[in-house]
Amino acid sequence: MPALRRLELLDELRVQDWEEMIDVNIKGVLYGIAAALPVFRKQRFGHFVNTASTAGLITKPTMSVYSGTKFAVRAISEGLRQEAGEKLRVTIISPGFVQANLADSMTNPEVKAKLPMQWTRWRSRRTRLPAPLRSRSNSRPMWMWAR
User: Fold this and answer.
1) What is the C-alpha separation between 25 and 58, in angstroms, rounded?
2) How far apart are CA 143 and CA 140, in angstroms?
3) Can you give the residue ranges of every domain in the chain?
4) What is this structure's pTM?
5) Which of these, 71, 111, 113, 114, lies nearest to 94 by C-alpha position?
6) Which CATH class is domain 10-146?
7) Which of 30, 40, 80, 96 suits a disulfide with 140, CB 3.0-4.6 Å?
């Protein structure tokens, strides 16, 4: 299931949107772990691959809740990695910003109307990640680690 990302200011108090992001982005990972962990333990091997985001490393305006959910995916995955033991592997993949149909999932018409202007401003002043956090195959930021 793809991550749910909504761009909105915290002042808008869109609690229902927050709950949806938490349900998909955090609980989805937890339910996946709950389904696979007993199987992996029984067969004595397995590999979890969780997708976080560079938003779990860097927070921007209007992305507070989304970034929080991606920070949570990193924390949950790291905790699982530490608990997993030698037979189970845990990998986090954190791709950089990609163009997506964000406007389709936005519920605030004012923020939705500003998206093209905001995208241009964000792109022109985005933070460049340090070399170890960039993909070697292209210039898109990516962070990945495995055990």
Assistant:
1) 17
2) 10
3) 10-146
4) 0.68
5) 71
6) alpha beta
7) 96
Give bridge partners of residue 31 from the DSSP assignment.
Answer: none
> Can you tell me the distance from the alpha carbon of 1 to that of 35, in angstroms, rounded to the nearest whole number?
15
Instruction: Tell me the per-residue pLDDT of 118-147, one tens digit each, with 9 for 90 and over.
Output: 444 444 444 444 444 444 444 444 444 444
Which residues, in sequence order, are CB contacts of 53 under 8 Å at separation 6+? 3, 66, 67, 70, 73, 94, 95
* Nearest C-alpha neighbor of 102 from the set 50, 146, 55: 55
Strand order in the sheet with 142-146: 46-51, 88-95, 142-146
Q: What number of H helices and E strands is found in the chain?
A: 5, 3
Q: What is the pLDDT of residues 36-68, one digit of tens each?
A: 999 999 999 999 999 999 888 988 888 899 999
Q: Name the residue among 46, 38, 47, 132 with its Cα closest to residue 94.
A: 132
Q: Is 31 assigned a catalytic role?
A: no
Tokens for 19, please give them.
């709950």
Which of 29, 66, 72, 80 is catalytic? The answer is 66
